[in-house]
Amino acid sequence: MIIAANLKTNLTRKQTAKYVDELESFLNKNKISQEVLVFPAASSLNAHSGKVVIGAQNAYATVNGAFTGETGKEHLDEFGINTILIGHSERRHILGESQEELIKKFNFYKELGFKIVYCIGEPLEIREAGHEPMMEYISAQYEGIDVSYENLIIAYEPVWAIGTGLTPTLEEIESIHKELKKKSSAPLLYGGSVKVTNAKDVLALDNVDGILVGSAALYVDHFCTMCEYAQSIENKN
Ligand code: PEP
Q1: Is the CB of 213 under 6 A from ligand 1?
Q2: pTM of this prediction?
């Protein structure tokens, strides 16, 4: 299973280093062999060797150049980073990233062989419009994306569930994941208000290959518990 933490614009460089150390020790001590990804803020990126894989929350489709405020491939190379998160709803909706821009980033980092966590998900008004419009909206987020890319991980994150404490029901998650798996056989994570209290149930669902966790992942002990849940579910299978 894949357990991913999106730390967003939280935790300083020092706090992130402590977080990664604690997580790494926990994984080793508890013999957790699941794939654990952590996406820190750009200024907290650092080289790390061990079980924890550090990824970038964002980067520009360039090696370097005149793109003020952006991070290029060269800057990720400096820390040995070859994992990236693309299409998060906060980047789509708050930072205004279009599907065209995402396709550019996707293709650029795909060519470099990066592991790409590609996020999709519908806002509340689309969900409320009914199942068909919702699936049409989500399908458009697959446009231009090579769904058979070997290093692709897809994260289904309903926008209305992110950071709100609201989640679809377990039945709804299972049913939409079943539909999404028809579009791509890439590992499919669920994200949106996953907490210690619901992680086990979500991880146990069919067609859920892992979770992408925001707020609750800021507490390293909570995130460690979720990694432990994933391991225990995998051990049972
Ligand atoms: C996220 O932002 O990717 C996320 C899943 O956030 P939260 O867990 O806080 O809903």
Answers
A1: yes
A2: 0.97
